[in-house]
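INFO worker-7 received task bundle
INFO bundle size: 2
INFO processing item 0
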Amino acid sequence: MMRGRSDGAQNRRLLTSVCVGAVFVVFLYVYFDSKNAGESALEYGSRSLRKLGSSYLSGDLDDGEDGIVPKSFPVCDDRHSELIPCLDRHLIYQMRLKLDLSLMEHYERHCPLPERRYNCLIPPPPGYKIPIKWPKSRDEVWKVNIPHTHLAHEKSDQNWMVVKGDKINFPGGGTHFHYGAGKYIASMANMLNFSKNNLNNEGRLRTVLDVGCGVASFGAYLLKSNIIAMSLAPNDVHQNQIQFALERGIPAFLGVLGTKRLPYPSRSFELAHCSRCRIDWLQRDGLLLLELDRLLRPGGYFAYSSPEAYAQDEEDLRIWREMSALVERMCWRIAAKRNQTVIWQKPLTNDCYLEREPGTHPPMCRSDDDPDAVWGVPMEACITPYSDHDHKTRGSGLAPWPARLTSPPQRLADFGYSSEMFEKDTEIWRRRVESYWNLLSPKISLDTLRNIMDMKANLGSFAAALKDKDVWVMNVIPEDGPKTLKIVYDRGLIGTTHNWCEAFSTYPRTYDLLHAWTLFSDIEKKGCSGEDLLLEMDRILRPTGFIIIQDKQSVIEFVKKYLSALHWEAVATADSSSEPDQEGDEVVFVIQKKLWLTSESFRDTE
């Protein structure tokens, strides 16, 4: 009995030891496997990835521990399917940032530190479908692609959007134009006595800033008049409004009038528009209205549709009196006023500014203030005067659209560029784009592409070369280079300033084509990660969308290593050495992103 018990106890102790050992081995395996995955696949800023991203151009990638290219990236959790890393409210809460909500600081960009960045593929929502093609998409999108219908209920009396079966329809209404943006736009043109009630004023009004744009129906209906609007709204209580706009194929951007300048240069827009945009224009000495003043061209308009323009209750009358006094001190005049809408006009010259009484507020900006410095620059409650040249010419001197697209603008001189250099750049990019489309042609039809981003736009000649295609281009100018975005706007195009070491201010799956000319070479010089940029491009790009990279051979080889991990496939490669004045060994590489439907279905295929 005793020996039997002793043998049994010994066996039990042996079995227990084996089990404990097995559990320990499994624990070590899981721990180190997850740790490695966390370091190399769940965070952007880990040591191994940073080295991988910062050393690839030197050609020193190897099979060492710090040089391993991932065979796959994990899929982010489904709750991140609409992640905007630098506009992520959850991140703000986690970082416990002390922001002034009254100044809209919580809607401004706050980017995660490298160690807090996601390093995973953003999944589309379950059941995602290839977006409806333009121009049909202006009026309807798949509900499953943006499964948010609260705006349809909240704005049901204003015709913003209507849910119909598996689609969301956009009747073209807005808070102050229930009966359609088309009639509202024609009414504005009539107020200004423009020919044929066409707001484009025979090509002289081309670029518009729509503040608090909703789902961008105003911008959508401007396109018929050859007017392009930058439709702007924050990621606020009307969540997904910009996502709806981009899904519809309408130019739009996530941004807010808060504390920082909007990422656009001075004198960029002929018209700014606010239709019940719920902005307190009187706050902080008129700071936000002065930001619009900075952005408007000489003689530009601000169309304001709001109760203050027509209501008779005491509070609205008070706001109207104070706002009228403010814009008068800013030298704006009422160009037209009818019913619910007032249109102010900015002066053509400095004459009015020079005639103001000393000490008048708002003051003129300091002489050393650069009105085109915008990346992270605080707004200033001051008036930007015109240059001597603009003052003498009484306006911007821009040609009407479409001649404006290829006419050398006067502000070229700010960069020491001649008309000949501008024309040569335009011709070079015309040839490049023709070559690009030859490479793409086996894969695309006339309506395949709509939303395009030029990630390093320079003078905007890539976009200019697409003038005959039914597309629009977001022209992005790096924040640390020449401030050529004003040339882009002077050509009648739109764009923004950005730092590609950070995430772009847009929703996932919003662009059909990304063009990256020598961008990877540039960010490598800044010490940023090429892998980070690839993941960001994947986030922005729609499934089945395309990427065109023109860069050094070493860059192309680096990108090729990640095709499988990103679920991209190579479409074509071409040598660009035959281009005139081509420097170095640039190669054109065309890529297409594959479609995978949901994170669950994707994981099941692994």
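INFO item 0 finished
INFO processing item 1
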Amino acid sequence: MVKKIDVLICGSGSAGIFAGTWLARYGIPFTMLERRAGPMEIGQADGVQCRTVEIYESFGLSEELLREAYHILEVCFWGDDGNSGIARKSRAMDTENGLSHMPHVILNQARMNGLMLGKLDELCGGEKRIEYGWEIKKVEVDEALVGDPQSYCCQVVAEKDGKEETWLAKYVLGCDGAHSIVRKSLGYEMVGDTTDTVWGVMDIYPQTNFPDIRRKCTLHSSSGNILIIPREGGSLVRFYIQLPPGSRAKDVKLEDLQNTAKKIFAPYQMDFADTFWWSAYSIGQRIANNFHKDYRVFLTGDACHTHSPKAGQGMNVSLQDGYNLGWKLASVLRGLSPQSLLRTYVLERTKTAADLIAFDRVFSKKFSSKEERPGEFAEYFVKSGRYTAGFTAQYEDSELTDAKGSRQELAKGCLVGMRFPSAKVIRFCDCKAMQLQRVLQSNGRWRVVIFAGDVNNTDHKLRLEKLAQLLEPLAQTFTLAGGDIDDLIEPIVVLRSKFLETQQEQIPGYYWPVTGKWKIRDLHKVYIDDEHYNHGHGRAYEKYGVDRDVGAVVVVRPDQYVSKVTALDDFDGIEGFFKGCFVENRTLNGKL
């Protein structure tokens, strides 16, 4: 029997889970087919960049992640001591101050996926969406049906226990890893390195007198190079060891890795009380020659880009592929946005992947090569910190990004096309000091962040009232029938007023609307940039580069990226932008 489903996700890795979580958030039917017999138990990836922690925070999962993870606060650089041994050459802060309110941490990919699977299960109400033990055999697209948005034009054949079944889907996501059957079925190729580098990785319990075993370190010695990653729990440590050219992954033995490590650590003692897990694998820096088929089948993660593990980017970039695609696909299937929105996934993530490959090629070369001068690698490592933290991606203009039509000078710290940064503010309704980015939860809402100045100033208050007169009917135009006024477009007001001189009644009613099951006023949309009783002054206006007398409007996408920066009186610009993102006059019912 042929099964029909809106979205079929092939693979339950990081990208697939994030895409599925967005679909579940929007109530879109999907099925996820996974080759393994159950959820991932041990993952190769473990580096969790600051941006990824921010994303987990947006799903309400950061507290658990941070409690369990190892926090990387410092990096040590070791090199030859000139006497057949190694010595610490320098130390550096891992992440520059002010880059994020979240840290760089280490947590095994299996646990990272497990946290997100818990959220997915919660959003699905316990309904089973992942089917294990299925091997994808073939993916085809009926090009004659592609033009009909409602057609099930994708056919997927999969096998379990020797029995084949067929699914028909409107969309298929290839999240099935570096050896992707989805990619191969489409006839797409990986372009890049012609040879692979072989890496050994060990999770070990070290018995050693090496003093920095609980710090992230790079070791460069005449015997080879090692990257040390302390693991969560206080005892476990991961070693990444690049093996010599000509090595074959299948020939590598655990003793080979242990012996190589001992030589690199000399003159320090290095013994192994136990090895929790180890592997040897070959990998090259490659990118798929196409990320989609007719905008009905999309490739994500390792299915479309592969690279070395040195910079700790793999899991992060992969899950952010799914995070980027999931809400867009759900918005189209829900009838909120036109199908053309899906091209922005390819536009945005193809460039991100190409940038990753280019960065990894340089980073890998510097990691593996002998320094031309002392401290060269350490300098490059520190300089590239903004990239490795996940904060350099800048999306080009499209239906979702309008740098050309923006007035960037009004909010210099909110760069169009980049992730919306955080700053400390005070929530007015309850005097809670908090990070503004935390307000931007991944629940499908667009945000209009309004830097309105001082509401006690008559002119500032008047322009805030006029903006409400535009935004309220605009939000009603696109919100699903029966939904709350803030379901799709949510206003967030950031004032530069004196906290103790401000009253809730001064705020126009649109910014504290009646919503929800109980039809009570939502007071959690107004924030003040002022001195807090206990937490000092966040100086958010300074961080965002906003003049309180001029103000600014920052439009933020559901995935926390800045779409547009403009003036409070740019009514045509704001209205025109949203008309390009949404479909009007829908007859669907329900809420996000």
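INFO item 1 finished
INFO post-check item 1: Residues 77 and 490 are 46 Å apart (CA to CA).
INFO post-check item 1: The mean pLDDT is 94.
INFO worker-7 idle
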